[in-house]
Amino acid sequence: MKYEHQVFRVATNRRCQMKDITQPVMDFIRQTGIKNGRVTVYCPHTTAAITTNENADPDVQRDILLALEKQFPKDMQGFKHCEGNSDGHIKSSLIGVSEDYIISEGAIALGTWQSIFFCEFDGPRTRKFMALVEGS
Q1: Could you tell me if residue 123 is left (phi over 0), alpha (psi between -120 and 50 degrees) or otherwise beta?
Q2: Is pTM beyond 0.90 here?
Q3: Which of 55, 63, 110, 120 could be disulfide-bonded to 17 (CB atoms 3.0-4.6 Å)?
């Protein structure tokens, strides 16, 4: 069993945004030479997340962000956290900070329309995410 780890940087340009990070993760897997195994993609931030969803139609990302904003608006009454980003913490907790993917024949086993997204909920800023590839 072989293990490889890499830290990536991602720059966001809006407060709430979904950025496709599939290609850098795929490139890293190819660099490792691992053909079969799994990759964990992890976000070490409390107001950002990692998810898998459709990338063919950008309206899907907009709809996800709109639904989250309607449920947890930035100015929601009653938030006690004084930094003004309580909504980002909640959205991150709901979406989750990591995803595991199967590596088969040197590629991530994603569905036809699926991509890996870094979800920003308190931007814009430069963030990081990590990938751990394990396999043979």
Answers
A1: beta
A2: yes
A3: 120
CATH of domain 2-135: 2.60.120.460
DSSP 8-31: EEEE--SSSEEEE-HHHHHHHHHH
Amino acid at 121: F
Asked whether 61 and 53 are in contact (CB, 8 A), the reply is yes
Q: What is the C-alpha separation between 56 and 5, in angstroms, rounded?
A: 29
- Is residue 55 within 8 A of residue 115, CB to CB? The reply is yes
> Which parts of the chain register pLDDT below 70?
76, 82
Q: How many residues does the chain have?
A: 136
What whole-number distance in Å separates Cα of residue 117 and Cα of residue 98?
11
At 50-86, the pLDDT tens digits run: 999 999 999 999 999 999 999 998 886 777 776 778 8
Tell me the angle at which helices 86-95 and 58-71 cross, rounded to the nearest 10 degrees.
120
